[in-house]
Amino acid sequence: MAEAHQAVAFQFTITPEGIDLQLSYQALNQIYLSGVRSWKKRFSRLRNSVIKGVYPASPSSWLFVVIAILATMYMRSDPSMGLIKMIQQHLPLRFSYIGQTMLSALVFSTLLWLSLILALRFCLKLLLSYHQWMFEQHGRVSNTTKVWVVSHASSCRKPLLYSYQTSLPHLPVPPIKDTVSRYLKSARPLLTDPEFKRMTELADRFESNLGNRLQRYLKLKALWATNYVSDWWEEYIYLRGRGPIMVNSNYYGMDFLYVTPTPIQAARAGNTITALLLYRRKVNREELKPVRLRTVIPLCAAQCERMFNTTRTPGVETDVLQHWQDSEFVAVYHKGRFFRLWVYTAGRLLSPREIEHQIQRILDDLSPPQPGEEKLGALTAGERVPWFHTREQHFSSGINKRSLDSIERAAFFVTLDDEEQGMSGEDPAGNLDRYAKSLLHGKCYDRWFDKSFSIVIYKNGKSGLNAEHSWADAPTVAHLWEYTLATDAFQLGYTEDGHCKGDVDRSLPSPQRLAWDIPSEVPEVIETDSLAVAQALADDVDCHVFPFREFGKGRIKKLRVSPDAFIQIGLQLAYFRDRGGFCLTYEASMTRLFREGRTETVRSCSNESCAFVRALESGEAEDQCRRLFKLASERHQNLYRLAMTGDGIDRHLFCLYVVSKYLGVESPFLKEVLSEPWRLSTSQTPVQQMELFDLKNHPDFISLGGGFGPVADDGYGVSYIIVGEDMINFHVSSKHSCGETVSTPSDAFIRV
Q1: pLDDT tens for residues 89-128?
Q2: Residue 469 appears among annotated catalytic residues
Q3: Which sign does the torsion angle of CA 183, 187, 193, 196 carry?
C-alpha cells in the first residue's frame, strides 16, 4: 500500500502536548509540481486563445497599429477623422490633456485593430468559400482561380491547429430541386422502368409540397447553427443506435505490414503510449499543423478536440459523449484485470522506458481477476440498453463507480493481449484475416468499445487500434495513428535488445489494480444479455485483408485517371461479377472544408459506371470500353467534388427527414430513400503524413490501414488505403450468415 500512503499529503494526531502535524514533503512536492503543470497548461490555452482569436493577424500587430496612429498624430494629422476627439470628450476619467489624448488614441487604435481583424477574417472566409477550383481541369485554370491562389498564398501566416476554425465557411443547404434531381439520377441504374417512374412521381410530389416546407426549417437551422448536419448526424446515426457498436460502428487500424519494431510486448506498449501522449500534447498546445487539402486549403480540426479523455456512456434512448479536459493516466486491461497506470510523475511525462517498466509490472502480476471482473468489457460490446440498466443498478456508486470512472476518464484504453497476431507464419493470408477480426472485436470482452479509441498490444509486439465512431471520422484517427507508428519506429526507437530508450526511476509506485464489488447476478446478465449477443455478431463477421501489389496509383495516374475513381469502378465490376447486378454503393467523402464538417456520401454506382461494366462484360470493342471508362471516372470525380463542396444528396435528405419527424409529418419519398440498404459500403483511408515515412530507405514500414464491418447483412464493407506508388491494401468484410457474400477475393475482384 505504498502508493496509498504517498497519496496522503499530511497526517495529524491529537496528543496531550497538542496537535502533532506530520507532513509528507514528497507528497507536497508532487502536489506542487502537478499544480505547476496544470497552470502551465492553463497559460498555454490562454495564450493560444489570444493568438487564434486574432488570426489571421497577430497580437503584436496591435502595437504596430498603435505606433502608426501615434506617429501620424505626432505629425499633426488626425487619421481618425475626428473620432479620437469624440472619444476624448466621452472619457469618464479625468486626466491631463496629453493623458486623455493618449488614452483616446489607444482606444481608437484598438477599435481600428479589431475592425481590421474582422475584415481580414471576412476576406479569409471568402477565400475559403471559393470551391470552383475543384471542378476545373488540369491545365485549364480560370483567371478567377489564379487570382484566388495568389491571394490565398499571400494571406496567411503560420497558423495554430484551430486558427482557421472561425474563418471556415458554414455548410450550405443545397436547393431541394437539385438534391431531388441528383437522387433520381443516382437511383436510375438500380430501378426498373416502372420502379423509376413510381419513384419520380413520389419525388415530384415531395418537391412541390412537403419538401419546400421542410426546406424552410432547414435553412432556418443553417442560419442559426454552425453546421446544419453534424449535430443531428452524431445524435441520430451514432448515439441513438441501440444495437452493439462493436462491428456495427467501431472500426480498426493496423500496424506495419512487414515489420514489428520490437517483439517485446511491454516495450512496444511503452513507445506506443508515449507517442500517443506526445500527440495529445501537440493537440493541447495546438502545435499540430492544420490538415490541408493540396497543402493549401485548411480542413476543419474540430474533431481533434474530443480525441483523448473521452468516452461514450449508455442511455435508454440515446448515449452521451463525455469529455474531460485532462487525464494523467491510462486504463490497462490484461488477463481479466483492470489497472490504472499513471503516466505523469512530478509534473513530467514518464519516459518510454519507465512506461515499459510499469507495463512489465502489469504483465508480471499473477493475481487472478476478481469475481465478475474478467468479462466486464462485454457490457460495452452488446446492446446499449442492458448496459445502461446494469450501469445504473451496480456501477453508479461506491467502489464500482470509482473504478468505472478510472476507465472512462482515462486518456485512452490499452489492452495487453495474450495472443500473437500479424502476417508472419505458415498461413500469412489467414493470419492477416485473424488479425483484422481480433482488432475489430477481440474476445468481445477484452476491449472497452466505449472509449474514443483503444490500443491493442499483442504478445509478440504487434499493435493495433479500435476506435469508437461517434466523436470523429476515420481520417482524424488515421492522422493520430500515422503519427504514433512513425514516432514509435523512427523517433523514439529501441535499443539493440528491443527495449525502450531512456532511464527508469524504479521508485515509481506500481500501477493500481482497480477494485470491484460486483454482485453475483451481474456475470449472468453479462453472459446472457451482452456477451452472447456480441459473440454471435463477432462469429458472423467474415474479414479478409490483402495487399494488392500488381500495380498502384503510379500506374493509374499514367492513364490520367483518379486512383479513387479507378478503384471504385473496379469495385462495381467486382460486385457485378460476384452478384450478377448492381447495388446502392456508399463511399464516404469528407465535408471538412466547412466548419464542423463530417462526411457526405458519394453514390459510386452511376449510369456511367454501369454502362462501362456492361460493355466490358458483354465483350464490346476495346475503344468503346475505354471511352465509357473515361466517362465513368469523370462522373465519379464530379460526384466526389459535389459531395466535398456541400452539394451531396444524402445528408440533405437525412436532415429533411429529421425535420419531418419533428413536425410529425410523413413523407413516403423520404421514408423510402432512407430505408434503402447500402449493400456495398466503401471508404478510402488517406495517407495524410507521407513525410513521416521514408519508404525509399525503409520500404517495409508500410501501414496496412484499417477496416470496418459490413453495413448490410447481405452486403460488403470495403476499406482501402493507397500506399506509395505501387501498393493498395484492401480490407473486405461480410457476414457468414449470408450465403451470397464471401470476403475472400476471387479472380473477379478488381480485374480491370
Answers
A1: 776 666 666 667 777 878 888 888 888 888 888 888 888 8
A2: yes
A3: negative
